């Protein structure tokens, strides 16, 4: 006996007709009849009483049908459990993001958890270099980080793909000296008291790009968006990408101007890195699809 025979028995019992069951199962009538007959011969019973009116289960057949339903359910549950555990390691996707993208990831994860309750997301906040090392050392499955063309990063042993290209912005008081310009140069930005979001990419950009045009003191470096917004409202300026902390600031409708930073290389990339081989996991495929859809939409 085999699982397919039990499935045929259930189909006939449900439809009450061997002909209807074969049509619904997309199999020939003779093939289904032979399969059920072979099972009856093996069990030495008649499962169905056949007549012109259809197929009706015998008393012994009722027992077979009950067990057939239990067996097929157990097998179905087994397949579902296997699928859950092959989503990713133990059904969990371990991922980390740089601080500037955490609010984006939380929005994505909420939607993903609603649609895929069998896959859990374990989310951490790390600096970009730490994310790369963690993925390389199998401590993380996925990492989101920002890169600049001039950054030298070792991505050995991981897959990397671009999610979105963004421009670096200068954010200054709208009514200030340079608030009405189409673009703001680093020299102009440096005339303001500077504050910044605290993560390794932003600090790298400050030291390696902004400081080429002068070396000001960074008045405040923090992940507290309320403190940063207050400083900006009081006359400070900052720089960042258009979907980092800047987005939260823009929504507060503060009197701020968001201007492209006038530097030779003004674009940066948000990338996703992942372990090699993870692309075969269903959970990763589902999360990757939703992640790309989200970044395409913003």
TrEMBL record:
Pfam families: HTH_1, LysR_substrate. The keyword Transcription applies. PROSITE patterns: HTH_LYSR. GO terms for cellular component: cytosol. Residues 1-58 form the HTH lysR-type domain. The keyword ATP-binding does not apply. Coiled coil: none annotated. Keywords: DNA-binding, Transcription, Transcription regulation. CDD domains: PBP2_LTTR_substrate. InterPro entries: HTH-type_LysR_regulators (IPR050950), LysR_HTH_N (IPR000847), LysR_subst-bd (IPR005119), WH-like_DNA-bd_sf (IPR036388), WH_DNA-bd_sf (IPR036390). GO terms for molecular function: DNA binding; DNA-binding transcription factor activity. PANTHER family: HTH-TYPE TRANSCRIPTIONAL REGULATOR YBHD (PTHR30419). Belongs to the LysR transcriptional regulatory family. This is Transcriptional regulator.
């Amino acid at each position: 006996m085999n699982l397919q025979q039990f499935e045929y028995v259930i189909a006939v019992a449900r439809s009450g007709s061997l002909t209807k069951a074969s049509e619904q199962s997309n199999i020939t009538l003779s093939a289904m009849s032979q399969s059920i007959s072979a099972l009856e011969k093996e069990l030495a019973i008649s499962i169905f009483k056949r007549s012109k009116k259809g197929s009706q289960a015998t008393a012994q057949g009722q027992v077979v049908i009950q067990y057939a339903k239990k067996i097929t359910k157990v097998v179905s549950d087994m397949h579902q459990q296997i699928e859950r555990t092959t989503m990713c390691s133990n059904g969990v996707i371990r991922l980390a993001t740089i601080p500037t993208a955490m609010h984006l990831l939380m929005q994505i994860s909420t939607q993903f958890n609603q649609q895929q309750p069998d896959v859990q997301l374990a989310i951490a906040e790390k600096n970009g270099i730490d994310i790369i090392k963690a993925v390389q050392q199998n401590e993380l499955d996925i990492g989101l980080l920002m890169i600049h063309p001039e950054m030298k990063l070792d991505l050995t042993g991981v897959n990397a793909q671009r999610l979105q290209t963004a421009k670096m912005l200068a954010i200054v008081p709208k009514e200030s000296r340079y608030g009405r310009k189409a673009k703001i140069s680093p020299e102009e930005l440096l005339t303001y008291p500077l504050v910044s979001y605290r993560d390794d990419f932003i600090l790298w950009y400050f030291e390696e790009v902004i400081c080429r045009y002068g070396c000001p003191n960074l008045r405040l470096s923090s992940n507290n968006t309320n403190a940063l917004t207050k400083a900006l409202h009081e006359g400070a300026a900052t720089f960042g990408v258009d979907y980092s902390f800047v987005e939260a600031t823009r929504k507060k409708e503060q009197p701020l101007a968001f201007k492209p930073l006038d530097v030779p290389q003004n674009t940066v990339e948000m990338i996703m890195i992942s372990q090699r081989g993870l692309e075969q996991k269903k959970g990763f495929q589902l999360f990757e699809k939703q992640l790309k859809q989200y970044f395409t939409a913003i």
